[in-house]
Amino acid sequence: MIRLLGAACALSLIALPLAPVAGAAPQRPADDAASRTLTLVPSGSGVSYRDGHGREVVLRGYNVSGEVKLAENGNLPFADAADARESAAALREQTGANSVRFLLSWERVQPAPDRIDEQYLRQVTEQIAAFADEGFWVLPDYHQDLYSRHLFRPDSWYSGDGAPKWVVDGGDYPPESCGICFHWGQNMMNNQAVKQAKADFWKNRRIPTPAGEVGVQDAFLAQAEATLDHLAAHLTEAQFQRILGFDPMNEPHAGNLDEGQDAAAWERDVLWPFFERFRAVMDRTGWQDKPAYVEPTVFWNNNVSFVKEPGGFEELDELGTRYVFNSHFYHALAQSGLYGKAKDGENSADFAEIRDRAADLGTTGFVSEFGHPLGGNTADKFPTVMKGIYQAMDSRLSGADWWSAPAESGSVLSGTQWQWDIYHDRHHEAMNGNPDKIQTEADGWNGEDFSAVGRDDTGTLGLRADPRVLDRLYPRAVDGTTVAFTYEDRSRDGDRTLTWNRIPEDMPALREVVGDGQFGVLVWRDGPGTAPTELHLPESFGAQNTTVLSDLGDAARRHDDRLLLTAPEAPGTVHYALVANGPDVPAPDRLAEARAELDSWAATNLR
């Protein structure tokens, strides 16, 4: 049961059942055409995702998957649609995710300058449909890293992905070499073949091919048009509703800058015209109502000072709702091994920068990649780094500051973690086509080990890390506008429980009710009231151990893994709900005292 206390009952404090009370209409998550429609809508707090009921929607999920970087399954995320469906079900059940970034390969769409691989597009469509049918929002992404695997020698230390072989052959690039590089990303700065190939793409260099001379960027956009047209034509109307938009190019990087040009000017003068061309392709192929998820130069927010570049579209004017500011964030310092473990509030400024850049550009922010290795010499930092990243996506504030200044918490950022690879540790990839360099371990690509999922000895899919940090309470849909949100996941760093958000000492009853369990607090300003506010409940919030304290009284109901909260029609009214999963059933008098403490806190801090 859910243990509830609200304003409706001052003297008789009772535990209410999970099912609706007798005579009440069943309360279920919205599952209609309106709930499946998602648009960018300006609101009092900026631009937000809104469904057809006017609810503010938060997107949380994973990239599916780095398998697209590998040739073993034809550069598809999954070997077949059955694997895609299995993955979607596991992803939903084990993390509560509602969205995925779905990777695509230019190399496979256009294997020759005069040919589009329709079979590849049919398989892509089937696999996207598997996620859409399971209720996921899907963001297709043209993925590339280091431009192309065909730039690299069969015996090279590194590999890439993206452009087809015929493009590389036409470029006549120098032998690739990164020198003494300890991470594949250093090829972006040190490998002249990679740098020249990228610069050629942005400048639309004309290259010879067996089908005649073509501009490299022109060829990319032509095959993108075929892809977008195919998806719009072959997904059902309901499935296409689940498509968020399109990510035109993963992690753009200039390669070589012109003399006197910095990365910010390159974004303005070179990268942005490419995005405008891609936007025109979207408009011609039935995607005119969906935004382009445009990424700034890859190093614009790197937290290693000597790698960071100017950028983030700082020299552009307002983008508007036809574009989403689409950023990545990795704790590069932690991955370098030159830095210790993450701490409370450490990434607040990093993600505030993403929020602020999106707001300045008149759109919303989306973080389509973030993560940390689960294997290797910095894997011990995974618990703190990921806790810190999710904390910063939930709120602008540290845990230490949240209770004293909740009105400064801000919007909840949407994003997709890198990554969800159901073939983790079971690959069979001939690196750069070399049969003597078969990659089987981890993610199978450049030594990376990021997948949050893997199979055990029985073949069952399961999480590879502490579910406390991966299966998180978050507001899936808010009837109105989020004022503040926080989640204390109590994740573990070895034998140590990480508690970064401590309930203030002047709220002793609430501290007792929550105990050492997980808890989250949502504060929101009431909206149109045509559908309930929905929070994802992690598996650890069971039927017998979930307590809800809210100003809404007995308006909370559980439906499967969601907590539903329905407010009376009073748009603009501020509401709150605290959800906890302490192991003990709180005494009614302590619940009442805890509720009174929350009321006092809300009256003082949320006027």
In a nutshell, what does this entry contain?
The protein is built from 16 helices and 27 strands. A seven-stranded parallel sheet has the order 7-6-5-13-12-11-10. Strands 1-24-27-22-19 form a five-stranded mixed sheet, covered by helices on one side. The protein has a five-stranded antiparallel sheet with strand order 4-18-23-26-25, with no helix packed on it.
Annotation keywords:
607 residues, 16 helices, globular, alpha/beta, 5-stranded mixed β-sheet
What does this structure look like?
This protein is an alpha/beta fold and 607 residues long. The chain has 16 helices and 27 strands. Strands 7-6-5-13-12-11-10 form a seven-stranded parallel sheet. Strand 5 (60-64), helix 1 (81-95) and strand 6 form a beta-alpha-beta unit. Helix 11 (348-360) runs parallel beside helix 12 and helix 15 (508-514) packs across helix 16 (588-605). The chain is globular and about 80 Å long. The two termini are 32 Å apart. 51% of the residues are buried. The model is unreliable at 5-26 (pLDDT under 50).
